Amino acid sequence: MALISLSQSFLTQRAPPYGIGMSTGIRTRDLRKTYTSPPPLASGGGFGFSAARGKGNKQPKPQIVALDGISLEVLPGEIFGLLGPNGAGKSTTVGILTTRVRPTSGQAWIGEHDVWAEQVAVKRLIGVVQQRPNLDFTLTAREILLFHGAYFGIDSHERTERATTLLERFKLTDRADQMVRGFSGGMMQRLAIARAMMHDPQVLFLDEPSAGLDPQTRLLLWEIIREYNQSGKTVLLTTHNMEEADALCQRLAIIDHGKNIALGTPAELKASVPGGYLLRLRFGQHSPEMLQRLQRLAGVREVRPIANNENSADVYADRGGSLVGEIASLASAASVELCDVHISEPSLENLFLHHTGRSLRD
Length: 362
Fold this sequence. Notes:
The chain has helices at 2-11, 90-97, 119-125, 141-151, 156-169, 185-197, 215-230, 242-248, 266-271, 288-295, 321-333, 348-356, and strands at 26-35, 48-51, 62-74, 79-83, 105-110, 113-114, 126-129, 203-207, 234-239, 251-256, 259-264, 277-283, 300-306, 309-317, 338-344. It is of the alpha/beta class. The strands form three sheets. It has a six-stranded mixed β-sheet, with helices on both faces. The chain has a five-stranded antiparallel β-sheet with strand order 2-3-1-5-6, with helices on one face.
């Protein structure tokens, strides 16, 4: 009964007919979010902590800075990615844009609608897939899709057709009339995405959509996301998977500690890494003179000691393997043991290492 009354309440203000309307963009301006308790589903790895002053003898509450002034513009009809390590602020950004998290300050818009001033209008335009599937285990896969369609005012015939099409597209037809409590994690994730698409939202939010999926399912998901985008829909996804960001996103923002540290197309961002190639070197002992000599090698753009590891250094260069022999010769001449060399081609991971000194997967 609760579901029926909720649906009827929502349907007193019906959305425009299915499929009508221009592509919808996303904007944020100086978004900030500070928690005084751990945020939902946060890993805590990337948040900053500062102590607030207490009153009297009360213990001060910790201030967890999840977002620190994020400003973004996602173009209508674009696949846009938020890339960063766990705890960087990606899920909090999505939470604000989907009306689940109230910002401490700043503004956000879906199309022309202010997210927090016009929540009902925003909810009609968006579909959301959260980091963890939140499916009703007492329903079958088909019932989950049908109830979602009814909630958004889609008539019985139309929602039955859409449910059948989505179940087939996500390869769930064989399990359509079974309770989802017996589904694997990958099946639940596919069903959660199908449910988000059921009312044909103009903007689709995917929070870590391929986390835990096997490679075959991941490729299927990428294909479906591209198809949905080609119909004119805007897609915003969060990920810490560099391959996923590179393969799917037309543009992306790399964020860390609640701040935007880089913005552009994957190709532009990779090209912005000094020299492109990254050679991570480990020596038997610390030698500042060795680092100075490395800097003078042809093609070397930058040499950086690795924080908290004085015997290692990152070398950004225009070439990779051909430098190893010259580095080994320098080390031998300086009586410094070269213990290990790891070479990476131009990548988003290298860009993040350059800006932050740590891995995207940290």
